[in-house]
């Protein structure tokens, strides 16, 4: 049985975000990159998160939340707007839970830029 992808439970990880995480593929859209970044957070892939971040806004280090019992529950993409000029916006809601607590929502509007043929995360604003 194949592992399902954190960004879309109905899709196998091996045919969704895994090729991006392993550097075997390049995200074809800002939405695909955002989905792969959500999956990277869910899987604890710090290096992928840093390499997919625009160098102008990328932090020097990234501490992932290692709260015991933290579990990412799902992703809902609300909109994806390609600016046609190498920029894009993706609005999404990511849900997570800590232990047996209630689910929390992280609602963000993220900006992306295409640099040398690759989409990169620039920054985001929480709603």
TrEMBL record:
InterPro entries: NTF2-like_dom_sf, YchJ-like, YchJ-like_M. Residues 29-124 form the YchJ-like middle NTF2-like domain. It holds the Pfam family YchJ_M-like. Belongs to the UPF0225 family. PANTHER family: ADENYLATE CYCLASE-ASSOCIATED CAP C-TERMINAL DOMAIN-CONTAINING PROTEIN, UPF0225 PROTEIN SCO1677. This is UPF0225 protein ACFFFU_11365.
């Amino acid at each position: 049985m194949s592992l399902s992808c954190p960004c879309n439970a109905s899709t196998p990880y091996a045919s969704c975000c895994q090729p991006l995480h392993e550097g075997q593929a390049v995200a074809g859209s800002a939405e695909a990159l955002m989905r792969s970044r959500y999956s990277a957070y869910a899987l604890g892939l710090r290096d992928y998160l840093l390499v997919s971040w625009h160098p102008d806004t990328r932090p020097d280090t990234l501490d992932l939340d290692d709260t015991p019992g933290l579990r990412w529950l799902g992703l809902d993409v609300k909109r994806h707007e390609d600016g046609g000029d190498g920029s894009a916006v993706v609005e999404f809601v990511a849900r997570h839970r800590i232990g047996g607590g209630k689910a929390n929502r992280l609602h963000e509007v993220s900006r992306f830029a295409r640099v040398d043929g690759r989409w990169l995360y620039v920054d985001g604003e929480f709603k």
